[in-house]
Amino acid sequence: MKLDKAEMGIWECCELLNEIVDESDPDLDEPQIQHLLQSAEAIRKDYPNEDWLHLTALIHDLGKILVLPKFGGLPQWAVVGDTFPVGCAFDESNVHHKYFKENPDFNNPKHNTRNGVYIEGCGLDNVLMSWGHDDYMYMVAKENGTTLPSAGLFIVRYHSFYRKHFFPYRCCFVSKYHNPFYLISTYLIAALHKYGAYSQFMKEEDKENFKWLKVFK
């Protein structure tokens, strides 16, 4: 992908989100810029010394500009909502899992096993994810030489990679509707590492970075 549509500062980009309401989120019927500011302020209050985390909260959803005509005018279904790994079996905890049966990969023996085309423990950075605003903003930050630490980039890239259901023997990401600020508890993160969907691909750095998702809102 060529990053040649515009050159702007962070605040200019934030202002563009005044034009966007995320249709995938029934709890937020306001322009996305408000969500960014509320998230950044909540993080700042709770973690005043982690300035990189304040910035991460502010920019995490800027990739949603992909729905604007200047940046491709993609339909919202191709930009917002959950993300999930491709190239391996679609975990049943994915939202609307039944519709994956229409995907050719569902019956492809190369792609429909637990590990698929990947090696266990390969690291999430080696796993292809469904396309969306997360990967786009991650790409923009990385290609522009961001000074965010790896945990910040991890949050930007994977904050939509959560699961909305819990099972007695499979604990996955908490739904963002669990509470108004989408908090993920330490217990649930530990459960994800041990039992969660796609946890077989995580390496130690992934598990360390996941600790920051418990405070991300």
From TrEMBL:
It catalyses: myo-inositol + O2 = D-glucuronate + H2O + H(+). GO terms for molecular function: inositol oxygenase activity; iron ion binding. GO terms for biological process: inositol catabolic process; L-ascorbic acid biosynthetic process. It is an enzyme of class 1 (oxidoreductase). It comes from the Eukaryota. Its cofactor is Fe cation. Fe cation binds at H35, H60, D61, H133, H159. Belongs to the myo-inositol oxygenase family. This is Inositol oxygenase.
